[in-house]
Amino acid sequence: MSTPRTYREAGVDVDEAERAVERITRAAAATVTPAVLGGIGGFGGLFRFDPGSYVDPVLVSSTDGVGTKLLIAVALGRHDTIGVDLVNACLNDIAVSGANPLFFLDYLALGDLRADVVEEIVGGVAAGCAAAGIPLIGGETAQMPDLYRDSHYDLAGFAVGVVARADLIDGSRVRAGDEVIGLPSSGLHTNGYSLARAVLLPETWSRPMNGDAATIGDALLEPHRSYVDDLRALRRALRSGGGDIHSLAHITGGGWEGNVPRTLPAGLGVDVDTGSWPVPRIFTLIQQRGDIADEEMVRTFNVGIGMTVVVAAGLVDAALEAVPDACRIGRVVEVPQGQPRVRFA
Amino acid sequence: MSTPRTYREAGVDVDEAERAVERITRAAAATVTPAVLGGIGGFGGLFRFDPGSYVDPVLVSSTDGVGTKLLIAVALGRHDTIGVDLVNACLNDIAVSGANPLFFLDYLALGDLRADVVEEIVGGVAAGCAAAGIPLIGGETAQMPDLYRDSHYDLAGFAVGVVARADLIDGSRVRAGDEVIGLPSSGLHTNGYSLARAVLLPETWSRPMNGDAATIGDALLEPHRSYVDDLRALRRALRSGGGDIHSLAHITGGGWEGNVPRTLPAGLGVDVDTGSWPVPRIFTLIQQRGDIADEEMVRTFNVGIGMTVVVAAGLVDAALEAVPDACRIGRVVEVPQGQPRVRFA
Questions:
Q1: pTM for the model
Q2: What is the pLDDT of residues A226-276, one digit of tens each?
Q3: What ipTM was assigned to the predicted interfaces of this complex?
Q4: Distance of alpha carbon B223 from alpha carbon B37, whole angstroms
Q5: Residue B199 is nearest to which of A3, A195, A197, comparing CB atoms?
Q6: What is the CATH number of domain A14-167?
Q7: Domain edges within chain A
Q8: DSSP state of A208
């Protein structure tokens, strides 16, 4: 093997990259809103910000990946929903502050750059953006053959939103006696896949699921649900009842323990009523096949609730009416120092 | 081998991840500015935006990675500068629009999560942010043992900046007869590493370099230079002379051809005077060892100029005075359709 004399010979296919960029550009163009400015060759994405709509605006931003869920997408050759996962994981993170999403960017790194695969992946990102009404204003597609094996890739996303400072949801209004509402998850979302894949091996993915999904693979790939619209409806309902959302937790990496306590004031915790919401079959399957303890399940997975919402007890009914599939799942309690702040009963 | 019953047994070390998060938090804390708001457990980074300072503000954002430069960092076990590369690659992309950087987020995915390595990497990101005076307000650290081999990782960054719409640099002022100034690069920056690594094999990296760096490895790892301060000084000088920057190109992936033309109006191109700037020795070495054609060099590498600046001919001296190591490297010319828009003579 002789030393390469061009970038192409070194494993970087510049022409295929250009084909990929064309398709990405087309996908992104479908998400453009009037706030997006063109120009200067796309080094940076340009978004016209109208500060008039927000008193003391706070920009809220989040970055996330989709974890090893993408190894399932790779194994099944289905790349069109992993981008939706990415967008919704990030949007839910910024929604927790009460922010409205403004725009999105993605980073995609691949071993083998194939324009059709890139198109599927970024098409999913664009679809997620379009569903949320925000533009995909930038991105990077990098071919790194020595870092990623053959068909492997990684995908990271970045969302920016805005909220008026007075509208920030920061947990300060939470009181003992408040109620906890759960917004159902569509499945694992984007967390716990290293354990899920170790328990449900690839040869099981084509097997039929009873109930919610056609196959185990389908259930594992079910996209991360966005709570942006749900939370908007919920907040509107609570405000017209004279209240507001007291606190939100996005149940992501670290499960319930890792996410609920950090959204509550010190000294407060949550008593959760196990059985008060429907648990998607994929969780039961993972737990049974893996003989996994209940405590490990809720430390690793969302087990059916992707977002918890704390509201004043008097406004629970209004909240439940605003989001039809929301469930009343527990309440805020005082917790002595050193005791667990999330208890399942 | 029995089926794992916990997330840890599935290869995710939750405790080491917590140690890593502690160190990341410490590194990020050193970059905090008064605009950063704490709160709600870090699902999203909160940045108070003062729209008063910008008439018709445009948010400019960019995402980038560092390419396979990180394989050199991994091989040499030196992880403390790759984060500086990441920040500066992104900041230069938004500076091209004339934007001031506001804040930064990073995404780090690793095979083997070791808190000390994470600390080095994110410490570099924080150092880059601190040097630019912006906060690192968010990030994601993901352990994905089945996607990344042993000590491998990938790193992506996201920067957001702002510019008043009237101050956007969009190339519309460029005219034939304008001069082109080059801002020196510190080396390869973050592009062309797949070719560089194929030509300069790992066994050469400990060999001494004549001149600018101690070893070839040092020269390859030299951090991406930030042009944020240079461009600020340059713009101030030009404006006090009654002019402004007409156009900027960040010489990144795609080299000169891939980046200069897209910042110029149609029908215009650039005649570059080869030899008008000092070429760092690392480029000469790569070209000689790889027997690489001149055209391939400028299509793949920055070859010593990381940013090109187009200014009116009458203001070149003011520009050169503002950035002491800037070089006058060419001029804007009319180019008939179908002809190359960057010519080296």
A1: 0.96
A2: 999 999 999 999 999 999 999 999 999 989 999 999 999 999 999 999 999
A3: 0.95
A4: 30
A5: A3
A6: 3.30.1330.10
A7: 14-167, 179-344
A8: B
